[in-house]
Queue: 2 jobs
Job 1
Amino acid sequence: MKKRILSIVSVVIIFGTLFSCSQGKSLQELLQEEKKAIDQFIDMNGLTILKDYPKNGVFGTNEYYRTTDGLFFQVVDSGNGKRVQLANDVSIRYEYCQSIKDVAAGDTTKYYYPYHPVYYSSSPYQPMSFVYGISATYSSTATPVCQAWVIPLSYVGEEAVLNLIIPSALGSYYDMNTDIRPVFYKNLKYTRFN
């Protein structure tokens, strides 16, 4: 009798384990979904991806530059010419951001505006900041600050305005550590270098 009960319990455990494993997605599957969603977002918006940064720094209406890190960005305004210096405090504002997976799935109305998901204390109207050159400030569990916001600073100056397509690997703490969430930022502005 004990053997029979043990056998039944073992079968239940094995099937339970197999079922639960089949419900979760592997990292590889999530990364493939992310790439597919980004590709769909690019197609849906008729974007042209440039392999080289424009020599004159001027982008066409639907042109985005793809960095070697995988960040896509479009410079709307290159700023006032003042360049960021090591240890400058860089302040950021943005119009809105949205999940690229949601847009690719057909939900084009789901904006994280004015708040980024989870970061209810952050708002595009309240600048967020990081210290240029100090990577520990490029991520926060309380704001959407991310590595992707740092990368374009080698191309643009203070008061520059950009649109960004950010893969999760360059995204915020939330975007990287939940469900591999690529994000689009509209009119992200570097408001101040101090």
Job 2
Amino acid sequence: MGSGIVAVLVLALILSAPAPAKAMEKGKVAGAAFLWTLGTAAVATFAYIAWVNRPGNPHPPDWSLRGPGGVFLGAFMGASFTQSYPWSYTPYSLPSIPYSVSQTSNTRYQPGVVGGLKLGYFFHRFPYLGIEGEFNLTRNDLKRQEVTLNRPLWGSTKAIIQSQNLLVMTLGVHILGRVGFLKDEEVPFGRLQPYVGIGPGVVYIFGEDDSSKNLSLEVLAGVRYMLLKNLSAFVEYKFSHQWQVELEHQKLWQPGGPNWGNGFAKFDYTNHKVVFGICYHFW
């Protein structure tokens, strides 16, 4: 059996290996490595499940869901806040603006409303540990604002960033850890369940003139209360951070003047969310 599993895993690695490609930028290399690792893990997991469930296996695994673990499905809504960060702005070569890089003072975003879904599983053999996948969607628009530049454009260190709608979609996978309090016969693990989670994410930012896709670090902390054996309510704080987001066709205007520049913006993006939700638990 051991040699069979090794063979299956080797086959999974071969099938999921990417085709040769040209040299890539550092950000694209990181993304390719992440997708290759995720694909390898998915193929290897599928191959292992097929192997242990093969016909004739004398010791098939027990996949039944026994409390206090099990699958849960949840929905949530709440508030979303994006942290202010400076932008590194590179104007395109235009007659009015020479090609150079200017860094702005902190750029401010509007708070927004967030909504999302999550699907997860706490292991019935070790109910302190779980895993979940999550989707959430929010808007944190840019407001029209004056910023200070570290090097002048049009002979001035002041510029105007125009208002812009920013739609932000996040897909994340979290490893969860929880503890239980207020135990009873209906919920032996405990009705009150503080928990934390961490994992990778992919965040899509849709601007009015361009969009970006980036890997992110997702961290959360929350507390769940079991209203019934199969129904819970929870409150949760979420932290999401991306490094070096890139948006093209971003405009800077000269304060009180007719000049404007179309350029390339690069910035870190940190989002904080506070949400309330409910989960149904399949025991």
